[in-house]
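Appendix B. One record, verbatim.
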Amino acid sequence: MQKPKKILNDPKEVVPELIDGLVNAYHGKIRKLESVGALVKTSLSDKKVGLLIGGGSGHEPLFGGFIGENMADGAACGQIFAAPSPDIILQTTRVLDQGNGVLYLYGNYAGDNMNFDIAAEMAAEAGIATKTVRVWDDVASATHEKMQDRRGIAGDLLVIKIAGGVSAKVKDLAEVHRVTCKARDLTRSMGVAVAAGSIPETGEPTFELPQDEIEIGMGLHGEPGVSREKMLPADALVDRMLERLIVDLPFQTEDEVCLLINDLGATTFMELLIVNRRAHQLLGAKGIKIYDTIIGSHCTCQEMSGFSITMMKLDEELKEYYDMPAASLGFSKM
């Protein structure tokens, strides 16, 4: 397999250079912490519950692109596809703590779980209260009975949006945690890959897939999905994915949802719009109301070709926070 062409300098300097690029793009609204891979707002509200998101780099704009007004206050950035270290997380926690504690929000992966848990223990020793929400929206990665074993994928974005809203209005860490958990538990995602991404330092693909096949339920790092099949037309593929999503919560007639059609890295906007067309048709036929539609590159894996579909069920409480104006590089709700 031919290695992909990438616009890089030294492949070993990808993460610090992309972090510098993020800082430049925010025009003074965020800063990099000295000597660690972490980004924080330059201005933090007094007594605000801090919202710290994070995980491996290589999924941009997740996570560093979701810092901003009514979004995250900081992001702990690991190496490519690797969890940030406990030290990075702890240093960022110290900066974000304004006296009311810090909420940790990240995808449910073993390395992230371990390192954020270690950082939480160290923060407690330093007198900083923390609570954790692990996003586990990927329905393909474990059964409904083993929900807590599921991976976090593009649903991170919608949960961050709710967490950003509630943490901007509510100064009680336990309440911010409750609402964010509610949002997480009402979110479901599923992805499909048609071509692999790669690791910048080596150029090697994250998985191998024959030219005429797709992998339904493929994970964000190339983890196996639920089935590998011959290529399907867009409508048939969307139908398969949505049927799996709908029954999992389950989503029902008269439910209102936010629909996210996410590019995994190299899928064209044209293709995403065709996917969105079919998703609206199918959900409309089932009486599921689409409150908002988001389409674009939000949670990626380098040049992986494919997409994911995410739905979050909204009630009146979640709408209140979802509707708060948000501004970040990776998301804007006008």
